């Protein structure tokens, strides 16, 4: 049986400090423009609650390479900022300066040094309590909406395309892609071994994928022009649905589980709190040997929360646990966070099963790389 220390997990909700690293490669002659854009961005970020500090560094080996690091009290305030429209507008001037970027995010696990040792305890902030175990997989999702009435056409387009080549390079490959719909909302969940950004760029260049993207363009609620780099970048920035929590219990073989996805529309401003509640419930389920849930991945942006589950047996066998609630108190809390939840949350298994059916997303396609 998998022990707690061996469990595969990641979380934005452990309360530890966050270190964000942004690697940038500038266009020739763009240095002054970049520095002006950075000063504007730095002043904006300094006022964001939860931000502690940042540094701008230039490579001593290649002056076109720059590094921006920032420190945050914890992951949630950073995620709220980076996923906001304010952030989109703030970083827009950087795009014309930069040839390539890569963003990395780390919880602070250990810290040494005289300056740290002499810092008062409250100012040190919380460190990650213990190292977590990974599986070499990066999980990410994209979401967007289509015009009402076009759902069937979009579903057919998304289901019929040819899979792109899984191998990106010697270090990166696509592992799995799942597409779901809930009403007119599309969610594409991807699993990548290696570099997520390299994989996303690889996919965007594949002719079969470009054909699908062009085919669904007329049906999108948000207009985009994939031939315009700024338009494409803006669309996919807003479509990003980051992972905020993942746990794999390690109790069931992969061939014994089925993939499901649940959609939760939070009240305005309650998306992060809702994701945190569901993450706590999934941690409890991972500790429960009788739970049919093998793994859970929670994606959240603004007030949209999507929970991707691997379940042994029927999804509605334990409907309350499948929903992410355990007991009347948790159901009531969920009701306070959900848009429309004031209309009543399920208190019986029968009511939970009906609520679960409403939350379940329709699976359009689920594709694994051949060598997985």
Helicity, in percent? 25-40%
Specify the biggest β-sheet. 9 strands, antiparallel
Tell me the structural class: alpha+beta
Identify the overall geometry. Answer: globular
The number of helices is: 13
Q: Which regions have little confidence, pLDDT < 50, spanning 5+ residues?
A: none
List keywords for this structure.
372 residues; alpha+beta; nine-stranded antiparallel beta sheet; 13 helices; 34% helix
Structure description:
This protein is an alpha+beta fold and 372 residues long. The chain has helices at 31-46, 75-82, 85-95, 114-117, 121-124, 151-159, 196-205, 207-216, 229-239, 271-287, 319-323, 328-337, 349-359; strands at residues 8-11, 18-26, 51-58, 65-72, 98-107, 137-145, 173-182, 185-193, 240-248, 257-265, 293-301, 304-312, 362-368. Strands 1, 6, 7, 8, 9, 10, 11, 12 and 13 form a nine-stranded antiparallel sheet that branches. Strands 3-4-2-5 form a four-stranded antiparallel sheet. A hairpin with a 2-residue loop joins strand 7 (173-182) and strand 8. Helix 1 packs antiparallel against helix 3 (85-95) and helix 10 (271-287) packs antiparallel against helix 12. The chain starts with 7 loop residues before the first strand and ends with a strand. 29% of the residues are buried.
